[in-house]
Write a structure and sequence with these properties.
InterPro entries: Thioredoxin-like_sf (IPR036249), Thioredoxin_dom-contain_11 (IPR052792), Thioredoxin_domain (IPR013766), TXNDC11_thioredoxin (IPR058777). This is Thioredoxin domain containing 11. The protein has about 850 residues and is an alpha/beta fold. Among the domains are: about 40 residues; about 100 residues, Glutaredoxin; about 90 residues, Glutaredoxin, CATH 3.40.30. Helix 1 packs antiparallel against helix 2, helix 4 packs across helix 6 and helix 8 packs across helix 10.
Length: about 850
Amino acid sequence: MDLITWQDCLNSLHMLNIILLCDCDLFAPLSVTLLIYFCSRAKNVVAAARPPVRFFSPDAPVVDLYLGQLDQVERLRSVAEVSFIFFYAPWCAHSMAARQEVQQVAKKLAKQVQFVAVNCWWSQGKCRRQTHFYHYPVIHLFYRRFGPIEYRGPFVAPYMESFVLRVITPLTYLPSRAHVEEFLAYHEPRVVGFFQFNSSPQPPGYITFLSSALQALKWDFRGVVRFGVVTNKQVAGAISLTEDETVFLHRRFNSSLIFPRNDLNFTSEAICRWVFENHETVLQWLQPPGTKSRLLEEELTKGPALLLFVPHNPLGTQPSPVLHDCCLNGHVVADIAVRYHSCDNSHHSSWDKSFSFRSLCCQSVVLPQSSTSVCEVCLSLSWPSFTTSPLHCLFPSSIQGGDVFQTYLRRCCLHQIPSPVSINSATSMGCSNFLDSYSPFSQYSACCRKVEPQLNESQAKEESEMQSVPPSLIPPFSVPQPEGDGITGLRCQTNRTLRFYVLDVALNWPLAVRLGASDDRSDDGSFAAIVNLKDEVHYVLQYTPAATLTESLEAFIRNFSAPYSLLQRHLARRSDEHSQSPPRFLITELTTSSFLPSVMDLQKDVLLFYYTQWCGFCSVLNHIIIQLARLLQGNGTITVARVNVARNDLPWEFMVDHVPSILFFPRYRKHLSVKFPDNLPITLPNLLRFILQHSGSLHHAHKPSVETEGPGHSAFLRSEFLTLQREVQALHHARERLSQQLAQLWRDNRRLKFDTRALETENSELQQERQSLEEQHREKSRQLSEVVRRLQELADASENLLNENTLLRVLLRVLKDKTEAREQAEVERKETEQKRSHMAS
């Protein structure tokens, strides 16, 4: 129907009013009916939705059900071995981004998998009415009748293809003992099922075991647990399996387990639950979804975590150079994780390829002929068990001919040699382990053997020379290392147990940058950090070109596990420290890198202002800090600085509990820093009084004692007097500036008072004018209301007159008709009488 406008409706109403004037009783029901009919024809203003179109390209091997035909999904799934169902919304950006990735996977696996895409946003489709998804896209996989197996990983083609391949082949066939040993050699949890196919082409237990492998993928889409099947009894004997339909869980550090069929039901859910409750995990992959998720927080709250960002190819066609050594094809990170958790090596299998053997490369140190000790330095090296040749020993040049290093060896070793009186000097020996640098990558051990029981004069002279060795030339520390390689079984030797996590660097590089990685990704792209959420600290591994990744990680873990760890907490530099901004002459802006050098400068009194960009109180105090910096601008010994604590990580000892906060670090006495009292208002006089009260002077400096007599003492007094004189002059200048500013403030205050009075007078006049205008407005409104009322009365009277006029016209017409009828009747009567009289005559 066409839209009936309000003007048409009013015209119809006017016509019906005229009809009512004639006969209200007759036309009243008809008028109401017509009014409802004419005025209720409203058109629907919501436009119909456009019909959907194909989401995937026609050449893609994907069945695109863009009308949401959910019944077609069931039909296609029933005839396929493996089905890949992609539920999408056409407007969703994630669905659009995943479309290309799904097409790549479909082109590779179209012959093995049925790919179906369903539009679940079309309002008239069955998918929209029968399913309730909270996000898009959603991927479900079906293996025959088993499913759905939801994929919750990243929407990247290699990851999705790897997951589909795991669903296609959930079980790994192990035809020989070599395959069994290779299957159990990796660090992931492994489950082996033994089923004989002699009596039946497909034993019932095998179907249950296959369903348990699919159920494990349903519970954990990463596929941490791998399932294998053995059909030969001799091959099953390699893991001591003799009974048919037996499920074996391989564990590396504890005894392996066999599924207790007498205590638990042999179902897929029971097997899967039993595996996940008893399996061991030493290295776990993390795949944050890229949206809001608590996955990372849930893992970090379990304890200190080693996060290793490495390049990763889920398909395994190009092994990662970090997880897989390019030459040895071994798991480097898994090797470290396994050895770290190996508290007892007796549980390791003979085919465990993740372990490596260690060897000692020793070299004698040539000491002076006058020495009575012979020292031998050994370098501990490691290489995997399947290498063909041992690694070469590379000793630093200081070992081969450095006198300082030899002196250090005698210093750290000779004091451990037993007394010659109680023990034969020929067999007495003392040993110690030491590291060659911070974050070390090689472990040295020095063993010294005493040749003669007594010290001669040359030895005493050498001992006196040893005492004069500068501390800076002695290696930085000497800590006892655990036996062996220093990493095996370390989990059971320390209370700071680490959990190992690996992340794909291509998908999680922004997280690595936030943890301390450089913005420019290196060639291999690897990055490692230890995060201790409980202590709110994290440490970043600093790579050394001369060291391998194995040595770097081992030393990194050892330093973290030490009782007195020498690792330095990483301080994030979130501010733009590289920008070439103009220098600040009044207030020094500190960053993470410039904080300690500026604050701990012994020659400067530093007033430090803590602030953040979102703190309103800090913004209010900015003008006070600027005025203070202007007053102290001529003084070269006082520095006014500030630091944005929201953009710069600081050491814990320099943090504050709230902002704004002010700390003062006096010169020569940095350990006696003072905080501005919280009960005092932060004003310019209070800040000046605070600085003068705690500022340092020359007699606080920790310098060598000065002679009390002679010219040195007078020079010292003169320098102190000059220093005090300069400070007094600076205070005089500050007082003059303060007096000038106070006078200017007084003048400004007086001028503001006059302006306030003038504004108040003008405000009162405006108020009176406003009142008069309001009265005039009320009067005009009353008059206008009166005019409107009179006009309404005139309109009503005019309408009444029109109605009366109409009635009068009707009445006049009726009277006229009656008069004419009466005259006609009179004429006819007269004619009749005339006729009668004529006839009578």
